[in-house]
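Journal club side-thread
Mid-discussion, someone asked how the predicted structure for our own chain would compare to the paper's figures. Pasting it here so we can look after the session.
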Amino acid sequence: MDHVIRSNQPGHTTIGLTAVVVAVTEEDPRVLVARRMTHDLATPAQAGTGDRAFDSPETLPFGPFEPTHHRTLELGLRQWVEDQSGLDLRYVEQLYTFGSQYRDPRELAGGPRVVSVAYLALTQESPLAGSGEAQWRPWYSYLPWEDWRSGRPPVIDTVIRPALTHWIDEAPNLRTRHERKERVAICFGSEAGFDMVRSLDRYELLYSAGLALEAIRDAHIMAQAHGLPPEPPPPETLAAARALGDPMALDNRRILASALGRLRGKLDYRPVVFDLLPPEFTLFRLQRVVEALSGIDVHKQNFRRTVMAAELVEPTGHIEASGRGRPAETYRFRRDVMQEKHDVGISLSAPRLGG
């Protein structure tokens, strides 16, 4: 495929296409990442010419929108995903448009503003091919504070709270101190429940506090662009950032956090979870997939009562011998329910942050 986006004219804008492709395998949410790119938007690390220790090559599948080759944005996205991973996506939906200044640091050197249209796709994990050195990676390896399935993540108390307390104490004035304290209370406070859909707010807070490796990277790039010597972060800040998940190229962890919030929000009113399941499944498997996406453990009997009362599934008459216990009855999603009800989802209760 020819690549046509090469302009460095001031004010020039390039449209990028980014895919958040999600699967749940062995009860673990996974996201598709690529490490090798050859198109014009590839970072130096992805193109194999940069310092991979400083700029992570791991990225969500993406590429430029090329009007002469792509009839629509979505078709362009599908083409890039197939080229880089070998996957032929089924249903995709538009997630959000990311266009902040300098989200691609090459803009500082006269490169174009890169506006990325992100899409969300749900699938089942399958073997990968293509040119992007694609891999399935655990979602929570990038956002470890979001996984409450085994209880409150230890990293919140051992790393996040002490670091954020220090960030509040370092505020330059009382107004900023109050604003920081309020943000911390909303995202990681001890009184309110853990709001599953605030995943983007939590990442943005950690980025603002310099506790995301991408924030340290971006500060380094900004300093260099303005001819200033980069100031290394304090050792304790760097150690905290390294403990808070794997980094991604550009602002891809921000996109990932946004997708997680979207998925969690839709659990309550749309049957998105069934796109991650085979046609026949046990209620135990359904529960585990819901827990994987929501990041919380749910009560088995309450969950089953909720699912059955909502008439989301129906028995198939088949029995699955899983090898992990007694054989279990299998079910399938009742697609007719989407015509019968306005909201078709699974409502969950949030855990307490103070627990």
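Post-session note: The chain has three domains: 13-140, 145-243, 271-340.
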